[in-house]
Amino acid sequence: MASHIVGYPRMGAKRELKFAMESFWDGKSSAEELQKVAADLRSSIWKQMDAAGIKYIPSNTFAYYDQVLDTTAMLGAVPARYGWDGGEIGFDIYFSMARGNASVPAMEMTKWFDTNYHYIVPELGPNVKFSYASHKAVNEYKEAKAIGVETVPVLVGPVSYLLLSKPAKGVEKTFSMLSLLGKIIPVYKEVICELKAAGVSWIQFDEPTFVTDPDSHKLQAFVEAYSELELSLSGMSVIIETYFADVPAEAYRTLTSMKCITGFGFDLVRGTKTLDLIKDNFPKGKYLFAGVVDGRNIWANDLAASLCTLEELEGIVGKDKLVVSTSCSLLHTAVDLINETKLDKEIKSWLAFAAQKVVEVNALAKALAGQKDEEFFSANTAAQASRKFSPRVTNEAVQKAAAALKGSYHRRSTNVSARLDAQKNKLNLPILPTTTIGSFPQTIELRRVRREYKAKKISEEEYIMAIKEEINRVVKLQEELDIDVLVHGEPERNDMVEYFGEQLSGFAFTANGWVQSYGSRCVKPPIIYGDVSRPKPMTVFWSSTAQSMTSRPMKGMLTGPVTILNWSFVRNDQPRFETCYQIALAIKDEVEDLEKAGINVIQIDEAALREGLPLRKSEHAFYLDWAVHSFRITNCGVKDTTQIHTHMCYSNFNDIIHSIIDMDADVITIENSRSDEKLLSVFREGVKYGAGIGPGVYDIHSPRIPSTEEIADRINKMLAVLESNILWVNPDCGLKTRKYAEVKPALQNMIAAAKLLRTQMASAK
Fold first, then answer.
1. If we measure between CA atoms, which residue out of 130, 144, 2, 121 comes closest to residue 61?
2. CA 726 centroid distance within chain
3. Which residues bind Zn(2+) 1 (predicted)?
4. Residue 22 counted as an annotated binding residue
5. I need a labelling partner for 408 at 20 to 30 A (CA). Which of 76, 299, 726, 736 fits?
6. What is the pLDDT of residue 689?
7. Span 120-179, pLDDT tens digits
8. Alpha carbons within 13 A on the beta-carbon side of 464
9. Is the separation of the CB atoms in 295 and 273 below 8 Å?
């Protein structure tokens, strides 16, 4: 019985690639040194999977930024502004597309389906000249073969690549990306030909857009694409991999009818309805890559249940055609549980990171082949029972409080226009008020202080003094810049979700459970293992301290319940909405304590609300209902004069704008600049927004410093579709990933642009 891994984490257990990339970007190391770190990581991963007995080991899943950008490089689809003049695409062009440079901005970044991973959005149009410009797929296959490991090269499929793209600047928004299929297929043929010459026997195409309700036009594009590739693929075995949700019935029929495809990969964790389609009709003689091991969470697989599913599937597809697989790439989970030496032993027994999931896949494959490891399965059964019956998982008081929420909408008693009037009198802000999103740069010294405090190398008094000094510096800087609504900079927080999870019951934390979010940015998601409550205030001390340092309004900074949920590894033993309601009640307690402490502006970030939107349209309404309800629960009890902000970033918000309005926040700040002001189009199309809104005026994920004129131009575009009395001026997102040398001039230019427009508006009256 064979085993397969869809993909694997890239950063390394100790984030080796992250530090190597950042060193390269800072000019402290060479391209050769970065390539050496990456090659060592790849080699280690391939050898690990080979030693574990995995038959179908992936290659070309190791990206320096993301796999879609790798495909853009492979196709030579470089926007003209980067000055690429042909030839093999190197780091200079690759990282300029991802991060921008001193003269040109980066390409848009958005969420990878409903995950917290991001990808760089291709910019395409009818005049793009495609060419084979990156031989990475072939090079990595040869690299693995040289160390004795046979791999399956993985490519983002041609149809999904086009459907994940957007029209380039100046191209009609109605331009059909699929019209470019005939132009990119020749490049795919070149890649396939070269892979075949190198000795590849199996190749994998990731086509996750199969799960997103594709219409007949898109399904026909899939048929045409692989029919056109059929001759090139002859002599090779071909896997089409789908993941993250059920494959719709019509899409399933289209996919499984493709003659040139050898095997089909399905997510049978999040796509349980696909099981019924397989049972009803699976093509004879084809391979089924059964994704029964969850690639997106950290819970140990219920091996007994998975084995039952696999045995049933074996009777349908045949013993020699069933392959045990992960549900998706293991990119979305942490690397190796062996590094967690301080994690609670009971909770640790419930978990499996990427390395352990590889073992689970192989254990299931061996069990199907009659080589069941009874000791391994028995230990797994004991861990499943331990988790199910552990008293630390359940808190009856929390469950009752969450159950009591049903039947109420939890809205504030006054409409937003009346509240804004009350807040205007209270806060006394100018037109086009300025603010930032929350965090300020996380300096080396600041990280050292937090690290030494956690290691008990400095006392609590020393830690508090150091953090107070940092807050004071951030407050003084904002006053010098003349920002209207201040933030304390979040120096006490390494991560916006981890910080709150550490102070809530029902959460556990890892030392090295890092997961890539984008580029070199890694996050360490907390683990929600039980019912959630707030034992004591979490932010009141720091927010009150910051407010005492200034007469200007100071924002209290919280992470919203939906974002905490979506950016955590969530318990899978109860519906997600129940856990979210529990978190909402905890945040509600914090909001009300901040208000009592005299904080008049409270930001409840919901950066991940759009991210959690299900991929199937039929499931949208239910998700948005409980997600928006959870946000309203957090602030339904505050006074009209308390201004509630929220923040969202790096997703396509236009399709949920009415749900955003229904959140009933007083002010929303939202990413806008990197997505080429796509958000503004919804207001041009007639959507009326009466609350305060701050579409981001510059991209903080790029080191590039925008000019005053550029920012003023962006604000003017906003004023063309939004009333001046509701418009705020702010960056796209928090500033923690930037350096002060970038932040200070960028904010100076932002403030100057706001003042310039205030003057122009006053003189025009």
1. 144
2. 29
3. 647, 649, 671, 733
4. no
5. 726
6. 84
7. 999 999 999 999 999 999 999 999 999 999 999 999 999 999 999 999 999 998 999 999
8. 6
9. no
Structure token digits, residue 15: 């984030």
The 10 Å CB-count burial string (b at 16+, else e) for 82-93 is bebeeeebeeeb
Instruction: With CA atoms as reference, report the closest residue to 142 among 192, 200, 87.
Output: 200
pLDDT at 671: 83
Which amino acid is residue 650, in one-letter code? Y
The confidence band for 357, taking pLDDT boundaries of 50, 70 and 90, is very high
- Half-sphere exposure of residue 637, counting CA atoms within 13 Å on the CB side? 14
The annotation status of 662 as a binding-site residue, yes or no, is yes
**Helices within 86-153 (DSSP H only):** 91-99, 136-146
Please tell me the least confidently modeled range out of 21-30, 62-71, 239-248, 685-694: 685-694
**CA distances to 25, 408, 469 from 464, in Å:** 33, 41, 9
At 721, give phi and psi (nearest 5°): -125, -10
Residue 211: closest CA among 252, 176, 172, 261: 252
What average pLDDT does the chain have?
A: 95
**Pairing state of beta strands 322-326 and 505-508?**
unpaired
Q: Is the pTM of this model over 0.90?
A: yes
The answer to whether 698 and 752 have CB atoms below 8 angstroms apart is no
Tokens of 681: 């189009």
Nearest to 648 by CA among 631, 635, 636: 631
Question: Residue 735, SS3?
Answer: coil
Whole-number Å distance between alpha carbons of 687 and 573: 39
Query: Does the annotation list 439 as a binding residue?
Result: yes
620 labelled binding-site residue: no
**d(C-alpha 734, C-alpha 499), whole Å:** 15
The answer to whether the annotation marks 295 as part of a ligand binding site is no
Catalytic residue set: 701
The percentage of the chain sitting over the pLDDT mark of 90, rounded to a whole number, equals 89
User: How does DSSP assign 244-302, residue by residue?
Assistant: SSPPPHHHHHHHHT-TT--EEEEESSS-HHHHHHHHH---TT-EEEEEEE-SS--BPP-
Question: Per the annotation, does 647 bind a ligand?
Answer: yes
Helix, strand, coil content of the chain in percent (nearest 5) = 45, 15, 40
For residue 343, count other CB atoms closer than 10 A to its CB.
19
Report CA-CA distances (Å) from 188 to 66, 144, 164, 166, 184: 18, 21, 17, 20, 7
User: Is a pLDDT exceeding 90 seen at residue 649?
Assistant: no
Query: Is 116 within any annotated ligand binding site?
Result: yes
H-only helix segments in 15-66: 16-25, 31-51
The confidence score (pLDDT) of residue 678 equals 66
How confident is the model over 325-348, as pLDDT tens digits? 999 999 999 999 999 998 999 999
Annotated binding-site residue? 658: yes
Higher pLDDT, 651 or 160: 160
